[in-house]
Amino acid sequence: MTAATTTEIELAGVEKRFSTPEGEVHALARTDLDVRKGEILILLGPSGCGKTTLLRMIGGLLAPSGGELRVGGRKLWDGERRDGVAVQELGIVFQDALLFPWLSIADNIALPLKLRGAPRATREAKAASLTKLVGIQGFERRWPRELSGGMRQRAAIARALSYDPEILLMDEPFGALDAMTRDTMNLELQRIWMETGRTIVLVTHSIAEAVFLGDRIVLLSPRPGRIDTLIDVPFARPRSLALQSTGEFQAIVKQLRARLEAIS
């Protein structure tokens, strides 16, 4: 599968300023960026550079201070108001799975559908298909506490996909996992992406993860964040973990690390 050229998300002069007791913080400078339909776009950069701020604005959780942000051709923000149709195209996964401990895994996955008034049969069928997609079939009736961190994140991904959004936004989704589980989840996310064709925007601090998963990588500068480097990742899919030991892979990692060190 290859990324299409149709634009799914458009940012034109989008910026963010916060008012604090110490004064105004300019978190993100005016940013222009197009995210292509069906691609995995990675947001990479030093801590505090505005990666999560940018993702939250795209996700309809934080209003921009200026500029225009479009999702699927629709203007997402009008001042502090969100376009409800555009928001329906967005699914969000955070670093913490944020599953409700009093709900089963299936009920956690189907919760967005329940909130939208979907009948029980529809919710159960969707949860069953998604647990299969993310590799946790057989655990539908378990409680979140009975699952490992990686399995909880699989459930969180399934929940984000439950209402069929076109775009999946992921904020350090595997940052709290051990290295081996993180590698496994990178492979699983690639598989899910290849099966669903969703557009994915993913924030990470890991350069290797960015190069392994991304079709393109956006490196943001320190605050106020701005696009410092935008690179295309040339590797075909599916990608195996063996790719990480190749000279071509390591050359891109080295390039990004050197640039990150230069701007930090």
Order of helices and strands: EEEHEEEEHEHHHEHEHEEH
Structural class: alpha/beta
Number of strands: 12
Give the CA-based shape.
globular
How much of the polypeptide forms β-strand, as a percent range? Answer: 25-35%
How many DSSP H or I helices?
8
Percent helix, as a range, is: 25-40%
CATH class of the largest domain: Alpha Beta
Strand numbers in spatial order across the main sheet: 8-9-10-3-11-12
- The figure for the number of domains is 2
Q: From the 3D structure, determine the CATH topology of the largest domain.
A: Rossmann fold
- The assigned CATH architecture of the largest domain is 3-Layer(aba) Sandwich
- Tell me the CATH superfamily of the largest domain: P-loop containing nucleotide triphosphate hydrolases
Mean pLDDT: 95
Largest sheet: 6 strands, mixed
**Overall radius of gyration:** 18 Å
Describe this structure in words.
It is globular and about 50 Å long. It has 264 residues and is an alpha/beta fold. The protein has eight helices and twelve strands. 35% of the residues lie in helices and 27% in strands. The strands form three sheets. The chain has a six-stranded mixed β-sheet, with helices on both faces. It folds into two domains: 180 residues, P-loop containing nucleotide triphosphate hydrolases (Rossmann fold); 66 residues. The model has no long low-confidence stretch (mean pLDDT 95). The protein starts with 6 loop residues before the first strand and ends with a helix.
